[in-house]
Please model this.
Amino acid sequence: MDRREFLESIALSAAAMTGRRVIAPLEALVRAEFAPQSTTAFVPNVELELTARPAHHEILSGAPTGTWSYSGKLLKGRAGALEDSGSYLGPAIHLRKGDRVRVHFRNELPETTIVHWHGLAVPAPMDGHPRLVIPTGAQYLYEFEVQDRAGHYWYHPHPDDRTGPQVYRGLAGHLFVSDDEESSLRLPSGEHEIPLVIQDRTFDSDQQLTYISGHMDAMTGFLGERILVNGTPDKQLKLATGAYRLRILNGSNSRIYKLAWNNGMPFTLIGTDGGLLDRPLRKPYLVLSPAERVDVILDLSGQTVGSSLELLSLPFPAPQMMMGRGMGRGMGRGMMGGVGLEQGSEFRILRVRIEKKEKAGFRLPARLSQTGFHRPQEAENASQPRVFPLSFMRMQWFLNGSTFEMDAVKENETFKAGSIQALEFRNTSMGMMQMAHPMHLHGGQFQVLKRTPAAGTDGMAASLHEGLTDEGWKDTVLVLPGQQVRLLMRFPQFTGLYLYHCHILEHEDMGMMRNYRLI
Ligand code: C2O
Ligand code: CU
Ligand code: CU
Model:
């Protein structure tokens, strides 16, 4: 088989699996040969190698589980810039604002892929657009400067139609950015700073991962039966009576968590997707939809040694498949025989055991950061936001009235680079099918200006709205059924094609994703 036949066979088998778009992936494969070449003008201070490949990891005790995982190697830069995860997850990447980063990415998967740096504002060729996917055995060179605030970002694959299964098999990792403002706060660090990624997975009797089967499941989104934290089931943290900084990422394909402590203690929220808030906030519970992050302080100074604490996901009503009266939620899984943990179920995420005494010393500053928020009047279209409906028709999710097209951009999807724009997502969810959609924009962070009606039009929004984190910089915002969410975003100075999409990865793969173009 020559190269072209090989590429075609991949494209065709991918299309056969999903029944959509044969042409686009093939074009993308051919175009990948134009992956960026290093330029001598770019001098990196952090340089690393990142490879995606099949692997095995012991997740449940007994037989190892086959995964797809990122592995990395630091070629140049601060020691600690790359930190092994100890699980199927990719290494955590630790960067500083201003770093000039070069990544040699290598695809050793049996299918095409590309890496996206979720939350960062990078030039379009560095953003991991699906048309930039590279075939098996190929390399992609990333070069970008970190211009973003200190925050908890992450990286994951972004091929068209295959992001859900690739992330599901294990391809994801934390990406932390720090800056001087954050460092000056002396927040808990070292053993007192704990990255947590929450994911749900389903295993078969051979301890292998099983994924969705069919269109029905894809419409609802994958919901796993086991909750994993940092790649581990029944996660336990053994902590002391001090203060901890928990940096939590929802790395699940579709599951929304309503995080709460079992003893009723509120959360002290200090940051969101795009970094620190201006000041700490108390929240009775926190809602974390796919791809969202929260940064919280857990102060255990009042706890006794030997006691324990549980992080739970509280129950909430989740109308996922409202196919008229009588056909309630869970139709996709419940009726198709999946026993699974439904969206909105109650379960434990992890257990904290307080194992030793430590002298208290940490005081959380009342002021955390300068958010640098824009004023709504600064938007080019302050009184006339660009409106993007989220809708459901013909057993398919739509964004802005269409599904994904590899190169297409509509008129209302074009913005001036560097401009400030008001945008509005409308979850129309009329009758047929209602779901909450975590909407994500590439190209950086936005502010949430308002949400109407605040408590939504159903029980789900009412049950979740106190735990939303609309106060900080966001790149992903949960748009509840019946809601309109208005955003303010300054687009990056770069030009080219970027994406916006639902971060329920099965919705993204079904085409609930669109391009926007910066000119
Ligand atoms: Cu986290 Cu377009 O993705
Ligand atoms: Cu992203
Ligand atoms: Cu969605």
